[in-house]
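In the laboratory, one determines a bound structure by crystallizing the protein with its ligand and collecting diffraction data. In a computational setting the workflow is compressed into a single prediction: the sequence and the ligand go in, and a structural description comes out. We illustrate the idea with zinc ion.
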Amino acid sequence: MLVADLKRRKHRLKMNNLYFGCTTCHIFVDAGYRHAYWTLEDAGVVSRSTPVDVHAVFDADEYWDVDAEWPWLENLLPAVRAFLKAHQNHEIRFGDGDELGLTPMYDGDYRLFDWLMEAGKVYQELPRYYVERMGFNRWDQVVEHNRIGTPPWWWHDDEYRDAAKQKFLSLVTK
Ligand SMILES: [Zn+2]
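The predicted complex, in structure-token form:
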């Protein structure tokens, strides 16, 4: 049900969020939505069908040269640059949530729980984030965190929450 709802919601959007994702480390960053589309994809710097040429992105001046009237981009781009530098010898892909496996495509598609979001807001609350960024090592800390704050969508789906818990537990018992 929930996955179908997500898909319906996505169909109404003209453009999806766009990301850079390292398929070696399963770490990803927000690429900058429309700005990334126009200055990178539409400009032919990146494509969704081939790995990202990091140097071509570094050379895309239009992408890095953002107006001060877009503070969220000004804040985001240094993190994107650091991400590309850190993962430049790995396979980096450019795409939306469907293409990276962040958006479940069928019931029981738990690939999103392999990922850690390094910069950006959507999708931040995932098991690896709780362990690697928030330093949680007990599931009840996650429960409490989501009791106080706004839980991510998967928290409301028993099967997804259970899969997230299994992932979380496998990370903290390593
Ligand atoms: Zn990597």
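Residues 125-172 form one domain. Keep in mind that any predicted model is a hypothesis to be tested, not a measurement.
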